[in-house]
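Are you able to produce any protein sequence you like plus the matching backbone structure tokens because I've never seen that pairing?
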Amino acid sequence: MTRVSFQSPLESSDRVLYQEKFRREVIVCAGPIAALQILLLSKTTSGLESCTTYLPPTPCTSCKIAAPELFSSSSAILHLAKVSSWHPLPSFPSSLTPPAFDDLGNIVKFKSDNRGPSGLPDLEILPVYFNYSDPPVPFEDVVFSLNVGLMRPASRGSVSLASANPLDGLVCDLAFLTDTVDFAVLRKGIKLAKRIGEKMRERGMSLKDLYMPESESDADLDAFVCKTARTKYHYGCTCRMAPENDVRPGVVDDELRVHGVKNLRIADTSLIPDMTAAHLQAPAIMIAEKCADMVKAACC
């Protein structure tokens, strides 16, 4: 890496090319989609031979990127509507702060098992007091939603360049639900969410089913998932941290440095080796703070 060039999307006939130089190193914090695009456009993978005539020579040609992977959390949504003038959850805020669970403390329990390879949670039940669907489900009354989130998807997507033009979008295939394991996990989560709704009624909350599966058969649950599943917009793993000779070759090492490129690090959720069982805001902050510590340590 010797320079970074910025090109304005509002070009005129007297185009000006601006250059920024650096003294020590460059840290890419562009996110799991754009960070990968930057590397791909810099000829960092042998899969770009057909585009090289459009790309200027760069010192990044020794860097190797395996077939980019894209993981995305997804969710299915169940809806319960209020059926009387009594407010069913008077203390339930729209944002999920701890008091939001006061009335549900005896209903929602943390349940763990060790059936997965790591024993990490694979589901999230997110109670929200508004219409959470995208697009929203039509209704005329107050709605309470239970969002069933798939936290560690087995389905693996992909990302590739549409062209050598950096202003063109990427070709992103999230590959939702292409692994049958994800259906099994979401079926389990929907059943749990329905039990939660039933317990809420038992405690006197005046609710009715608004948007539910036809039954709890595998076929009906799978049909409901296919109809309602949406992305959570938590993407990661496109520039994963792993050795170059790994079964799934990595892009960065354990110091966040891009393999084969001097003075270039990545510090965003693209480097996560495998999807975390959590929303990615906190991991993104943790990665940034750890990167800052590494940079300071290297300078001292």
Notes: The chain has a mean pLDDT of 72. Residues 43 and 185 are 39 Å apart (CA to CA). The chain is about 20% helix and 20% strand. Residues 180-202 form the longest helix (23 residues).
